[in-house]
Each structure stands twice: as structure tokens, then as C-alpha cells.
Amino acid sequence: MTAANSSDPRLLFFAGSARQGSFNKRLAKLGAMIADANSIPSTFADLADYPMPIYHGDLEAEEGQPENAHKLKNLMKAHTGIFIVSPEYNASFSPLLKNTIDWISHIRDDGEAPLEVFRTRVFALASASGGGLGGLRGLIQIRAVLELGTGALVLPEQFALPRAREAFDDNGHLKNKDQTEQLKSVIQKLARAARVLHG
Q1: Residue 124 has what DSSP assignment?
Q2: CA distances for 14 relative to 57, 80, 199, angstroms
Q3: Is residue 106 predicted with pLDDT exceeding 70?
Q4: Which of 28, 55, 121, 162 is deepest in the core (most CB within 10 A)?
Q5: In a domain, 3, yes or no
């Protein structure tokens, strides 16, 4: 995480996968590296460090929201732009990411409007897959949940990485320079949008 002035955009990167060797986690880490290299303060968060039960209304009524849901929400509040990378599962996105969104959307701190943490941040989306579409079908579903379900502002620009098994070099960078530039462009647009929204 890079230190930031209060007026700087601050980007949070995370992947909708807890798997250690996840291509999407590697892409999220790379995104944070690219942001830092371009003087954009960033943080990478691993959802494996924030385990939560599957959302259940009775569980919430009996025990409240999980501590890790509060931690993640506070992490989101500390950033002005959120970059989400998710695998595609059966033409949708991961249950882990959906569960994370569901829990956080139910937390309303004192003085907050409903879903305020989503509606006061800018989001960008990316995906990686071993196939030729790069997870594009899942991105459609994530966009619908964020825009229609939470009222979030999601950039129209997004990044999909096909054939991810062959895409990374040993240092975690993309072998294809054009793909690197495409990813960098989305990150820079997210930073600019976050600066406008919170400037």
C-alpha cells in the first residue's frame, strides 16, 4: 500500500477467488503493482484473509454481520476506487464474490445511507480465464449486480484476459505488452474517475 494525500485517488484491488494459484488473484496483484508504478496509491486485499459464512438472514438476525465483513467494508471506505477481478463460473461470477457483496451490502453504519459504500465509490472490473473469452460473460453479471443491485458507478471500460495459463511470466507480469497497456488504461481511468468523484 502506498501512502496518499487526502486528495489522491486510492485504489483497492481484490479478486473473487481465494485459490492460492488463481489467475484472477494474480491479475489483481498485477493491477496493484501497475497502479503503484504509476504513482497511484493502491492496496491489494486477499479475500482468503476474510472468510465469511454464506449469507443467511436468520444467521444475520441471530449473530449480526461477520467481523470480516465489517473489516472489508472499512477497507472499501478507505479507498475511492475499487478494482474487482473475478473468475467466470458457469457464465456468471464466483459465489465468493457474491457472498462478499451480499454481506457488505447489509452493513449500515450510524449516519450512513443504505448502500452508501457502494454508491460513493467508482468500480472497475476485470477477469481472467483459461478460455478464449477471458471471463467476459461473468463480467456482465457482476456489472448488473453492482449497478442494479447496489447503485454503484461502474466504468464502461473493463479488462478480460483470455488463455491466462500462458499469459503471465515468472515475475507475475503479462507477456503481451498490448494487454499490459490495456490493463494500465483501465486502472488510470479508474483513478481519474475516483479523483473527480472525490475531488
Answers
A1: E
A2: 26, 14, 24
A3: yes
A4: 28
A5: no
